[in-house]
Design goal:
Elements (H helix, E strand, L loop, with lengths): L3 H9 L9 H8 L5 E3 L5 E3 L10 H5 L7 H7 L11 E7 L2 H6 L5 H11 L5 E9 L2 E7 L2 H6 L14 H4 L11 H6 L4 E5 L1 H13 L7 E7 L9 H11 L6 E6 L2 E6 L4 E5 L24 E4 L8 E5 L2 H10 L4 E3 L6 H28 L1
Helix pairs in contact: 4-10, 6-12
C-alpha cells in the first residue's frame, strides 16, 4: 500500500502538488495529525510516528488516478468536460453584490439562498487578508458571505482548515472536536477544480470530512498565479499602469484590470505564465468538472456569470436561488448559452492539450 512518502516522491518532487490540502484535511480530521501544510502550502509530515500508513492520503490526491473511475462514477462524469445538465447566464439581484463580485455574484447569491433556507450551516469561502492575499474562511452569516465576494487572483491554500474547523458528524466520529464545537453538519464549499476533486475523492472513499460537504461550487480556473513583488512590478510594465490605480481584477479570456478611472486594461494570459504556479501547467480541469455547479465569466457579458449545473443537487439549488437572489439572462433561443458552452469546451481542450504536452515533456 502506498503512503504519504509515495505522494512526496510521485507528486511533490516532480512539482505536481496543487496545495489543495486534501491529504492534510483527512489526516487532521481523523485526529492522526501526522501531516501539516507548511508556510508555502506544501503538505509535510508533522509527526512521522503518528502516521499509520493507511494509504488514504495517497488515494485522495487529485493527481493520483487510483480511484479515478470511482470518482467519475460518483458524479456521472462524461467527456469532454464532465456532466452538463444546464447552462445559464445569470447575476445576483442585489446591485451591491454585483458591484463587488468578480462577474455577476452568482456564487454569493446561491450561498445566501442556501443559508436563508436553512440548507447549510455555513460555507467555505475565501476572505481577503491583504491586497493580494486571501485565506480559507468559514462564513456562517449573510454578512460574512457577502464580505467574501469578489475576485482573488493569488494563491489560496485550499482546504487546509477544513479538517480542523469543518469536520463531518456521524455516529462513528462523535469525538471530532471541531464538529462538536462548531455544530456544523452541512457546509457548502467554494473551490478550484483541484480542491473540488479532492473532496470528491474523499466522498468516493466515504471518508471524513466529506460527509459535511453538502454542495460543491467550482470556479473556472486558468491557473493560480502568484502576486509577489517582482511579479506585480512586471505586470505594471507589461500593462503600463500602477497598482494604486486598480479597483479590481477579473479573468475571462484575458486578465482584465479595472482602474478607478473606469478604464479596463486587458493582458493576455499567455503573458502571465511567469507568475503561474508550477503545478498548474499540468492541470487539465478548466471548468471544475466534478462540482455540483461551476461558475466563471467566460462567455458572459460584463457583470454576468456563466453557470453550469452538473448534478441534480446543483440544478436544484440554482433553481431555488433564481426565485429570490438571482436573475437569469433572457435567452429564449439559447444562442448565448450555447456560445458560452462552446467557449468553455474550447478552453478545456486547450488546457487539456497544454497539460498533456507538459507532462509528456516532463516524462
Amino acid at each position: 500500500m502506498k503512503t504519504f512518502q509515495n505522494l512526496i516522491d510521485e507528486v511533490q518532487k516532480p512539482g505536481y502538488c496543487h496545495h489543495c490540502g486534501g491529504c492534510v484535511t483527512f489526516c487532521t480530521s481523523v485526529n492522526y495529525a501526522a501531516l501539516v501544510q507548511n508556510e508555502q502550502g506544501l503538505p509535510q509530515y508533522s509527526d512521522h510516528s503518528k502516521c499509520i500508513e493507511c494509504g488514504l492520503c495517497y488515494a485522495i490526491c487529485p493527481e493520483i488516478d487510483e480511484i479515478e473511475e470511482d470518482t467519475q462514477e460518483l458524479v456521472s462524469w462524461s467527456q469532454p468536460m464532465g456532466r452538463v445538465l444546464e447552462t445559464h447566464i445569470a447575476r445576483a439581484k442585489e446591485p451591491k453584490i454585483v458591484e463587488k463580485a468578480t462577474d455577476g455574484g452568482v456564487v454569493t447569491g446561491i450561498l445566501l439562498q442556501l443559508l436563508d433556507r436553512g440548507h447549510i450551516d455555513g460555507a467555505i469561502v475565501t476572505r481577503q487578508t491583504g491586497p493580494f492575499m486571501r485565506e480559507p474562511s468559514l462564513a456562517t452569516t449573510p454578512e460574512e458571505i457577502k464580505e467574501a465576494a469578489g475576485f482573488y487572483f493569488d494563491s489560496s491554500h485550499g482546504m487546509k482548515h477544513l479538517g480542523k474547523d469543518y469536520s463531518t458528524y456521524s455516529p462513528s466520529v462523535q469525538e471530532f472536536r471541531p464538529m462538536v464545537q462548531k455544530g456544523l453538519r452541512r457546509v457548502a464549499m467554494v473551490g478550484t477544480p483541484c480542491q473540488i476533486k479532492a473532496v470528491r475523492r474523499m466522498e468516493a472513499l466515504s471518508v471524513v470530512p466529506s460527509d459535511s460537504i453538502k454542495f460543491t461550487l467550482g470556479l473556472f480556473c486558468s491557473g493560480n498565479f502568484m502576486f509577489g513583488e517582482e511579479e506585480r512590478k512586471k505586470i505594471e510594465k507589461i500593462a503600463n499602469f500602477s497598482w494604486d490605480e486598480m479597483k479590481k481584477v477579473n479573468v475571462k479570456d484575458k486578465l482584465m484590470i479595472h482602474l478607478k478611472s473606469g478604464k479596463i486594461i486587458e493582458v493576455s494570459l499567455n503573458e502571465l505564465d511567469f507568475m503561474k504556479r508550477y503545478a498548474c501547467q499540468f492541470c487539465s480541469d478548466y471548468s471544475a468538472e466534478f462540482a455540483d455547479v461551476s461558475f466563471g465569466g467566460i462567455g458572459a457579458d460584463e457583470g454576468w456569470t456563466t453557470v453550469i449545473t452538473r448534478t441534480p443537487a446543483g440544478r436544484q439549488i440554482f433553481a431555488d436561488a433564481r426565485k429570490n437572489t438571482l436573475e437569469v439572462q433572457d435567452d429564449p433561443s439559447h444562442e448565448k448559452t450555447s456560445a458560452a458552452l462552446k467557449r468553455i469546451i474550447q478552453k478545456t481542450e486547450e488546457k487539456q492539450a497544454r497539460a498533456k504536452m507538459n507532462r509528456d515533456n516532463m516524462s
